[in-house]
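Suppose a colleague, Dr. K., hands you the sequence of a protein chain of 354 amino acids and asks what its three-dimensional shape might be. Before reaching for any lab equipment, you can write down a predicted structure in token form. Begin with the sequence itself:
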Amino acid sequence: MSETIAGQKFGPVRLMPGVTRGHVAAYLWAAFVSIGIFTYATTLQPYLLEVNIGVPIEQRGVVSGDLQFWQEIITLLCVGLFGAWSDRIGRRAVYITGFLITGLAYAAYPFADDIGQLLIYRLIYAVGIAALGGMLATVLADYPIDADRGKLTGISFFLNAVGALLFFSVLTRLPSLYQGFGATESAAGRFAYLTIAAICVLSALIMLGLKPGRPDQVTERLPLRMLMSQGLAAGRKPRIALAYAASFAARADLVIVALFLSLWVQTAAIADGATAAEASSRQGALFGIVQGCAMLWAPIFGWMADKLDRVTLVIIATVLSIAGYGWMGFTPDPAIGGAAFGAAAMLGIGQASG
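The predicted structure, expressed as tokens, is then:
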């Protein structure tokens, strides 16, 4: 009883009273799978556009951009609603709901017959992602004591990176794996998405291990209009304005890597004579380098963050990102060659810095 009152520890992390090691372990599973689940649908999407729907090559960029645009709109509209809902019914229920909705979207996505159906399933996916993304940050703030929040954040971010590396470098090979068992190209793509849907359902079950009930401390939510006015007023300060601009660029950075680079690699590999499944495997290898280098660079950049002025740090991060994207942009063929792998490594460093 005294341990519960004083608060338990998860490794070096001291926990809030009432939070157990089991609660944290369940959350860290969510941290492990979340980034991969957030991006796998778009990473394997070029395969669907090529094999299942047959979208012409010259239209795939526009289609992918439109789908991503509407996903972002729905996510922005829903994330605040899920945050308020979690204050009323608890984080666990919202997390379970998010994984189930996302799993439903993954199960339906590869069965779309046209772009209209693909958009409908993508909007369902956006609702699930809004719930998961909101809870990923919220639970991270709920469980540790304030003094140890940075430690749990570091563990969570490390698992984010490891999970993303697994999804990008291993699970993008699922179509090739299923074809090796005799599946057709179309069926192999569907089985790959259904595999991720199963991971979502498994994750929903694991989320039963989160702390039940409403959070013990709920911060009063200010009206949206007041938050916007305060945010705009703060943006008049040069350093805050720089932070806004950096955040804006960082979000675009993630979208470009997950969406358009995957489309480019897939298209280039097929042009080189690869099958759609082989192209996905090459894409996975390249993304594995991106995520692996990002994971290795992150602690180095974190050490730099403690040593350097924040403005100087943003400048360094921007230069590294420009170098990574510039190198990749001038790579003749991102699907083959050492130049592509070197550019991917620099891109990962830039992404981790941004």
